[in-house]
Amino acid sequence: MVVDTVIWNPSDSIIDLGFFAVRYYSLFFLLAFVSSYIVVKKQFEKHGIDVALMDSLTVYVVLGTLTGARLGHCLFYDFAYYSKHPLEIILPFTFTPEFKITGFQGLASHGGGIGIMVSLVLFCRKFKLKLWFMLDQIALVVPLAGTFIRLGNLMNSEIIGKPSDVSWAFIFLKDDTIPRHPAQLYEAIAYLLIFTFVYMMVKKYPRASGFYFGMVIFLIFCFRLGIEFIKEDQSAFEAGLLLNMGQILSIPFILTGILIMYLKGGAQQETAVKVARQ
């Protein structure tokens, strides 16, 4: 029996003028990048890297994240629709059933992860930094950014959990009146804990470049694999599958994380200059 529930029905916009809206999701997305910028900047200063590179790094990572996350959603979760409306992949509005400014709704974290890695490869080639070192720096803040992104999902009442009778269940009135797991909140808390744990480990136990990158993707996607069991499917085609798309996509990341930690686990951290520069 449900002892208590949270009735959840916030507006998804802070400001809505009809033709223009500032959404909570956009605000949390901005907070994700600002907080990540601050942490990575401190890491740059610690390793003696020119902080001026942060502006270029931000551009690369933002573009890589948005491009990868958007393409990931369109290709992995809603290919049937976007294959018929390809312009809506890159435009922040829909044409059917009526013209409407929507923003870029529909972003996939797995695609975002791939986009970040591609952008870092390009960044490191241009500025002659070691890729493994940069992967560690960005991986450190990925769970922190993920915390804000999932809070944005919570404000949008999206990525909801399955029906539940737990005392802290949420009723997402935008969907129905059924008490459900607040899966977005679970993920936000988990990602914040992962960030805190890895950040403390980085400070106390230096490792060879790449080790903490492997640890982060292992922890994040292990949790993602488990949390999907109590989340509603994101697309209709996932119904009846043993594992949904989020879980299927998580498995290669988990295996990659294990392999990287194994390969990098025995080596000690190099000097800052050797780590940073090629």
Automatic annotation (TrEMBL):
It is a multi-pass membrane protein. Its main location: membrane. It comes from the Bacteria. It is an enzyme of class 2 (transferase). Pathway: Protein modification; lipoprotein biosynthesis (diacylglyceryl transfer). GO terms for biological process: lipoprotein biosynthetic process. Signal peptide: none annotated. It holds the Pfam family LGT. InterPro entries: Lgt (IPR001640). A 1,2-diacyl-sn-glycero-3-phospho-(1'-sn-glycerol) binds at R150. GO terms for cellular component: plasma membrane. Keywords: Cell membrane, Lipoprotein, Membrane, Transferase, Transmembrane, Transmembrane helix. The chain crosses the membrane at residues 20-40, 60-82, 102-124, 131-149, 183-202, 209-227, 239-263. One of its GO terms (molecular function) is phosphatidylglycerol-prolipoprotein diacylglyceryl transferase activity. Belongs to the Lgt family. Catalyzes the transfer of the diacylglyceryl group from phosphatidylglycerol to the sulfhydryl group of the N-terminal cysteine of a prolipoprotein, the first step in the formation of mature lipoproteins. This is Phosphatidylglycerol--prolipoprotein diacylglyceryl transferase. The lineage of its organism: Bacteria, Pseudomonadati, Bacteroidota, Sphingobacteriia, Sphingobacteriales. The gene is lgt.
